[in-house]
Every structure is written in structure tokens, then in C-alpha cells.
Amino acid sequence: MGLKSNNLVEDKVGGISAIDEFLSSDDVFLQDFNKSRKKLTEFLKAIIRHHINSNPYYADYCKRMNFNIEEDEFDLNKIPLLPSAIFKNDLKFVQSNWDDSVMLTTSSGTKGTVSQVPRDNTTLMRFFASVAAGVQEVFEIPQSNLDLYCLSPKLEEIKHLWISYVITGVSLYFPSKFYVSNDEFKVEQLVSDLRKVDQDKNGKKIVIIGPPALVLDTTKELAKTGNLNLLDRCLIVTMGGWKSRQGDIVERKELTQRIVEAFGLLNEEYVRDVYNMVELNTVIFECKHHKKHCPPWLYARARNPQNLTVQASGELGILSFADPTAVSYPGFVLSDDFGVVHEQVKCTCGIVSDIIEIKRRVNKLESRGCALKI
């Protein structure tokens, strides 16, 4: 017999409809932090019940972890986490209540193996809703008079590679151009289009989004052909890691300076970064003060790599996430990244949230040790 379940379709307190309403609410990042945390707790309790009832492997895992969702004192820090490595194995361990809409989204295989994450329509639509909220409220970008230049292929060319969905999530809201095709970065075409923008001082503003290596390539091309003077008419957004370009890695501060100089931006506020991984159904956006704001529908904590206990605010650990927006798989994941979570910070941008810093990747030995502890 399954656990007592909130109706995931109709429940207006902790179920799916309540989450969707929250995701689409005005100024969701500016709502009272404590009230939002209470809502998040209810969302997580409801979705955990769903996964326990729909996924026998996760249900058994919860039993082995002595986790009881019906305890009076529900502790967000005790939600059983899945190591990200499990998404590289048999999908039966992560599937929850699949239907015909489920598709497999994949990582690019940073460490040589590919993660596969099953996403149904509800999970994908919530992901796109989270992107919309981040673009509008953290990036503070209006949905008008703006073009998006994507340093990636079109979605139909890449198919199920997750980074393309992240970029597509942004491109849904603006007229977009794409500058990668057949594994070729069309940097000369990009620079040509940018020069037209530079010359038309009264034209549309633009956002350029792509992996840091391709943004770096663009700065090198501009260094050869002449820098731009885009001032406040361009926002550069980097996302993802350096993957196969490890030899080209540039420290973040230096990269930002090179971008500002090459594009002729007004200041460093016009260079941003976002964080996501294929197992996470939410994008974490960076504000103009370069703070990555954990959205109010996501719970993030850094964990001690020795015993996976939660670190104090500001202490380094392995980042973990509890994301209630994922329906087709349990979105409770121990990541492959070391980082810091600063709890309930009042940022000068006006948002009160947990702030996330990404420090480095977990190496293979560390990853194996953490997986064995779960």
C-alpha cells in the first residue's frame, strides 16, 4: 500500500498545481523568504510522496535510509539524495511514473560517460517556467526589443543534449540566432552581426549566451579584428564548463575582464554566469552583483564529503539539491561540484535568498567515496 498522497493534480497547498502557480507568480524571487521556504517544504513533501509511491527503488532506498515522510518534524536536510553517478546507470533506479511524454535528456559527458535523465512534459514545462522567472527577475531582462545570440546549435540538431534545452529555455522568449552548426562555431558570422549591432546605436539590445570557451574564442576574434563598443546594449551570459577545452581554461575574473574589453561593455555587470547540471531541473541565475541566487522553489546545501552531513552556512562542501519541480524522476541529487551555500542573504540587488558559489568539480576518487556513503 502506498503512502498517504496529496492529490498531485488538484491539491492547492502542496501539489503540482500549487508549484505551477508559485513558479508563475509575479516577483517570486522577492516574496518573503520564510513564507517561500514553508511553501517549498510542502512542495517537497508532496513530491517525495509521489516518488515513493511511483518508484519502488526510491521507496526502498528511503526505507534503508530510515527516512519517514510522515514524521512530525520534517527535516529538509534528511531527504535521501541520489548521487549524480546513478543517472549514468540503469534508468529503472530513477524513473517515476513514466508516460508517453517522457524523453531522455543527456549530459555532454564531462568525465567520459553520459548521464540520462527522464523528463515528462510537466517536468519540462516547469523547467521552462523556472528559466522565465530567472531571466525576468534575476537578469532583469524585459521580454521586448531584444535579440538573443546563441553560441550553440539549434535544438533539432542536438536533439536531447540538455545544455541545448537550457539555451532553448532562454530563446523561447526572444528572437534568436544560432552560431554553431555541424560542430562548427561560426565566429566570423557572429562578429559580423555584432558589428552591425555596434553601428546601429538605436537598434535592439542583445543577449549572447553560450559556453565560456566559445565566448573566449569570440574575444580572441575581436582582438584580431577590432574591439566593439556595445556599452549597455549587450549582456553576455556564460553557462556550462570547459569540457574538452581544459587547456584553454581562464579564471573567471580574467575572463570577465577580457569580455568587457573585447565587447566594449559598460562594466562587469553586463557579464553573467548561470549554473545547471542535467540532473537539476532548475537553472540558477547570477544577478548583476555576481551572486548566484538559489530560487525559492529549490533547496540547496553543501555537504561534508566525509559523512554527507550539512555544512554550516559559508562552509565548503559538495553541493546537494532538492528540486520539487521534477515529476518523472526524483530531483534530490548530490552533485559533482564542490561549492558554498550562504544562507538567507540579503543581496544589494534586492533579492533575499541562499547564495551559491561553485568552486570546483569533484574528482573521481572523491566521487566514488561519496557514492559509497549513500
TrEMBL record:
GO terms for molecular function: long-chain fatty acid--protein ligase activity. It comes from the Bacteria. One of its GO terms (biological process) is bioluminescence. Coiled coil: none annotated. Residues 16-373 form the Acyl-protein synthetase LuxE domain. InterPro entries: ANL_N_sf, LuxE. Transmembrane segments: none annotated. Pfam families: LuxE. This is Acyl-protein synthetase LuxE domain-containing protein. It comes from Aureispira anguillae.
